Amino acid sequence: MFELAVLDSALRMATPLILASLGGLFSERSGVVNIALEGILLTGAFASIVATYYTGNPWAGVFAGVFAGVLISLIHAIVSIVFKADQIVSGVAINLLAMGLTQFLTWIVWGSSANSPSVQGMAHWSLPEIWGPVARGVNVVISHYPPLVYVALILVAVSHVVLFRTPFGLRLRATGEHPEAVDTLGVSVHAMRFAGVLLSGAFAGLGGAFLALNTHQFVKNMSAGRGFIALAAMIFGKWSPGGALAACLLFGYAEAVQMGFQGQAVPTQFVQMIPYVLTMVALVGVIGRARPPAAIGKPY
Amino acid sequence: MSERHAVQMRGITKRYPRALANDRVDLDVEVGEVHAIVGENGAGKSTIMKVLYGLTPPDEGSISLWGKELSGHRPADAIREGVGMVHQHFMLVDTLTVAENVVLGAEPCSHGCLLDVAAARERVRQLSSEYGLSLDPDDLIENLSVGLEQRVEIVKVLYRGAKILILDEPTGVLTPQEVRELFVILRALREAGRTIIFITHKLEEVLELADRITVMRDGRVAGVVSAAATTKEELARMMVGRDVLLRVTREEARPGEPVLQVAGLSAIGRKGSHVLEGIDLEVRSGEILGVAGVQGNGQTELVEVITGLRRASAGSVTVCGRETTNRSPRQMRDLGVAHIPEDRQARGLVLGFTVAENLILGRHHRKPFSSRGLLSLDDIRTHAERLIEEHDLRPRDPDGDAGHLSGGNQQKLIVAREFDGGPALLVASQPTRGVDIGAIEFVHTSLLRMRDQGAAILLISAELTEIMTLSDSIAVMYGGKIVAQFEGGAVGEEELGVAMTGGAGASAGGSAVRSDGRPPRHEMGAR
Questions:
Q1: ipTM value of the model?
Q2: Rounded-to-integer distance, Cα B459 and Cα B290, Å
C-alpha cells in the first residue's frame, strides 16, 4: 500500500482536488457556500478538451478551462450575491446544469453521447539536456509530473500568502465572518464576495482542465464527485490552504489505493467506496472542532 | 453655516414602510462638545445617526459637516470627512486580532501588496497608550471582554482619523466599572479636541458626561437643552411626553411561605470547573430576592439550574416544597416557575414567529391553546388580543412579527406571557436590559404587583439601582458563590459594589462569606 507507485499516483489523484478545494476556500472564506465546485470541475474539464481539440495546444485548453470555470461561477455569484438566492440551491442548479450542458455539447461537438476523441496531453516540463548535469538534476524533479501538479502545489503556497498576508485576504476573511463590519468600514461586501466566487471558479476550472488533460479526453460526468470531495477536504482542512492540501493528499491516496485494489478478490464496488467512506469518516471525526466562517451561507 | 458647528442636519425625514423614523429632525453639534441624543427606543436616535454616517439615505433634508454640505454620501465619504461610528452591536470580526480589526479596510502595506502587520500593531499601540486604552494589538477579539471590544471600536475610528465620534448606546453592555472607564476615555478625547455624539437612554450618564442634549420623541426633536440647566425629571418628561416614575415606590413586603429553596447547589461548567459552588437561597412568597453581581459570576448558571436548563452537580432545588432538582424546563413550568431570560432574543422569543405565537410559547401544548395535537387558533388569537390590550404592546397586532417589535415591546411581550397565569415563582434575569425608561417603569411596577399578589421573585440584575429599588433582600454573587447577603434598604451602593468585586469589605452588615479573591472566571462570561 505504500509503494512508490501508489504515492506517486496519489499526488496525481489529489491535484484536481487540491485545485478545487483551494477554489472552495476562497468562496467560503468570503461567505458564499460553493457546492457548485463539482459542476465547475466538469465544465472546466469539458472546455479544456474542446479548446485543445481545436487548437492542438493543451495550454489553450488550460486557459479555456479557467475561463469556463470563471464564467459558470459568475452565475453562482450573480444568483447568490446579487439576487440573494439560497447558495445551496444555486450550487445544486449549477451542478445539474453542468452535467446536462457538457453532455449535450459533447454530442454537438463530437457527435458522441459519452466522450470526446483523444487529444494531445500536456508535455512535461524539462530543461534541455545540453545544459549539462544541473539541468538533468532539475529535470528529475520538474519533469516527473504534468506541469499542473507543480502549479497546484505552488498555488497552495500563493493562496496562503494571499489569504493571510495581504489586505485583500484580510478583507475576504472579514467578509466571511462579519459582512456588516466590512460594510461599515467602506469596503464593498458584494465586490469581495464576487472576487471569492470568481476565484473559486478559476481554481476549480483549472482543476477540471487537469482532470481532462491528464486522461487526454473528456468523458461524461468525469468529475465523479471530486467537487464534493474537494469541498469535504476544504472543511476537513479547516478552511486553510495547508489543511486542504493535506486532506486532498489523503483522499488522493485513498483513490490511488482503491485503484491498486481493483481486480483483486474484493468486489470492485466496495473498493471504489474507499475514498468516499474515508471522506465521511474524516468529516465525522474532525468537523466537530472545525469552525466555519461565521457568516457563511447568509446573503448580504 | 457656522464655523463652530461640526454637524448641522436640517429637516431630515426618513420613512420606513411601517413607520416614520425621522420627521423633520434638526441637529446641531458644536465642535469639541459632547452632544447627547436621548430618547426612548424607536424615537429615531439610531436612524438619525445612520443618516449622518451615510448608512441610510434620508428621504428629505440636508447634512453639513464642518459647514460643507454633503449629498448622497456613503460611509466611505463620512469616514473621509472625519466621522467615525461605534455601533451598538460591535462591528468586530471575532476570529481576527485587535490590530487586524483596526486596520481592516484601510490597511498599511509593505513590499507593494503585503499587509504590514508591524505597522498596524505599532499604530494600535500608539493610539492605545495615547488615550489609556490598554489594548494588546495581538489579542484575538473573541478573547476580549465587552468593555475592551468597545475600546477596539474606538481605536478603529481614531485610526481612520475621526474628528467626530458617534457612539450608539455605548454603555448598554458595560458594567458600572467599565462605564466609568469609558467616560474617562471620552473626556480625554474631548480634551484632545474631538467632537463626540453620544446616543443613550440613560439619564444619569447624559447629565454626567454631556455638554448639550438633544431629546427625541416619536421621530421628532422634543427639545435641545444644556446639561447644566436641566434635570433627570425634565429629560424624562421630554422623552416620554408625560411625567415618569423614575423610581417606583415599594410597599413593605409581606412574605409568606418559602417558595424557592436552594441548598448547597453546585454546577460544573464546560471546562470542568465549578461555575456554581454551594449556593444557598430562599425566596418566600410575596418577596423579591435580588441577586447582584458583575456579569459572568454564575448568575446565568444559577438561573439555568433553577429553571431546568442546566444540570446541577450537587445540592437541591425545592419549589413549593417539592424537590425539583434537575427537572426538565417543561416540568418546572408546569410547577408554576416563570422565567424572564436574560437574552430575550435568544431565549425569550422566537423572532420569526408572530406576537400571538410567542405569547403562548411554553404553554402551547396545553389547553386552551391546543387540543388533540392541533393548535386552537381562535383561542390563541383571543389570548393575544387580551394580553396586548392589558400590557399595551405596540403595535397592537397579534399577527405582527415579534422580531419587528422594539426592544422594549419585546420585553413587554415576554413579561406579559410569563406573568399570565399567576406563577408561583418568577425568575427574572436582567429584566430591563437595553429597554427604555418607559418600559423599565412598566417592568418594575409589574414585578412589584406580582410580588404583592403573592409571587416569589428571584431578580437577577447587573443594574445596582434596579436591585436596590426592588429587592426585599439582596444576595451578591462572585466567582460562582454567594459572598454576601443583605436586608433590602440596609445597604448602600458602595457596599454592594465592594462585595460584587469580591472585596474584603463584603462582611460589613451581612452574613458574608469570604471570597477566594480570584477574578471572575472568563469561562462563565456570558458574551
A1: 0.86
A2: 5
